[in-house]
Write a structure and sequence with these properties.
Layout (H helix, E strand, L loop, with lengths): L27 E5 L5 H10 L2 E6 L2 H7 L5 E4 L14 E7 L8 H9 L2 E12 L4 H8 L21 H10 L3 E8 L4 H6 L5 H4 L2 E7 L12
Parallel strand pairs: 1-2, 1-4, 2-3, 4-5
Antiparallel strand pairs: 5-7, 6-7
Length: about 220
C-alpha cells in the first residue's frame, strides 16, 4: 500500500494506552514514527517535555511540526541522528519496529541516545495470535491493509523474540502487557494459560539501567 493511499487517521492516533508504562518524569522524549504528533504532543503537555520525532511521510511530518519541538523527515534506518548521546529519558517505538528491515539495529542505535535510567516504550503486534494460527490451519497467510497482517510489516514477533530484541541491545525489560480487546474474560477464565494466543499486541517497557556506583577503598 502506497503512503498516499493511507488515510491520515492511520497516523493521528493518540496512544494513551501507554500511560501506565511512562516514567514519573520526562524532560526529553524521542518518538520513532511520530505520525501527526498526537502522542508526542500529549507527552509534551503531560510533562512539559521537549519532544522530538522521526516521520517517513513528509506531509504527515509537517502536521507533526505544528505541535512538536523537532521532527526529522525520512527513513529512520538510513538517518544520521542529530542528537548527542544520552539525550533522552523516553523513547517511543509504537507499532513501528515491525515495519523495518533491521529493527534490532535501530534499537541498538536508540540505546546510545538514552540517558542512564531512561525508558523505551514499544508496541509490537503478536504473530502468535489465535487468528494467525487458525488461518494457517486453513492454509492461509493473507496480508491486509492494516492490523496484525498489515502488508507493510517486514518482521514478525512473539513475546520471547520481542523481549530478546530489547535485552540484546542492553536494556532491561520491566513490563510486558498483553493487549486483548474482546476476549479478556476468556483469559481470566483460563488463568492466562492461552494469553499469548489471545494477545493482539504487546506493550513493552524497558529501561537502560544506571551503572552501579563502585566504592573505592584506599588501603
Amino acid at each position: 500500500m502506497a503512503i498516499q493511499e493511507i488515510p491520515l487517521t492511520y497516523y493521528s492516533a493518540l496512544r494513551s494506552d501507554i500511560a501506565d508504562l511512562l516514567p514519573s518524569q520526562v524532560s526529553c522524549s524521542f518518538e520513532i514514527g511520530c505520525g501527526t504528533g498526537s502522542t508526542s504532543a500529549w507527552i509534551k503537555q503531560k510533562y512539559g517535555a521537549y519532544v522530538a520525532g522521526v516521520e517517513l511521510c513528509e506531509d504527515v511530518a509537517h502536521q507533526a511540526e505544528k505541535s512538536m519541538d523537532k521532527v526529522l523527515i525520512g527513513d529512520v534506518e538510513n538517518m544520521l541522528f542529530i542528537f548527542s548521546p544520552a539525550s533522552f529519558d523516553l523513547i517511543l517505538c509504537l507499532d513501528v519496529l515491525e515495519h523495518l528491515k533491521d529493527p534490532w539495529g535501530l534499537v541498538t542505535r536508540l540505546v546510545s541516545l538514552m540517558k542512564p535510567g531512561a525508558s523505551l516504550v514499544a508496541s509490537l503486534p503478536n504473530i502468535q495470535h489465535y487468528s494467525t494460527f487458525f488461518n494457517l490451519l486453513r492454509g492461509r497467510w493473507n496480508y491486509t491493509s492494516q492490523g496484525l497482517m498489515d502488508k507493510t510489516h517486514l518482521r514478525f514477533f512473539v513475546r520471547s523474540t520481542a523481549i530478546a530484541m530489547f535485552e540484546d541491545a542492553g536494556l532491561k525489560v520491566n513490563v510486558v502487557n498483553a493487549e486483548m480487546s474482546r476476549i479478556k474474560t476468556i483469559d481470566r477464565c483460563t488463568l492466562g494459560i492461552f494469553r499469548d494466543f489471545c494477545a493482539g499486541h504487546y506493550l513493552i517497557q524497558a529501561c537502560l539501567e544506571k551503572p552501579r556506583s563502585t566504592d573505592i577503598h584506599e588501603s
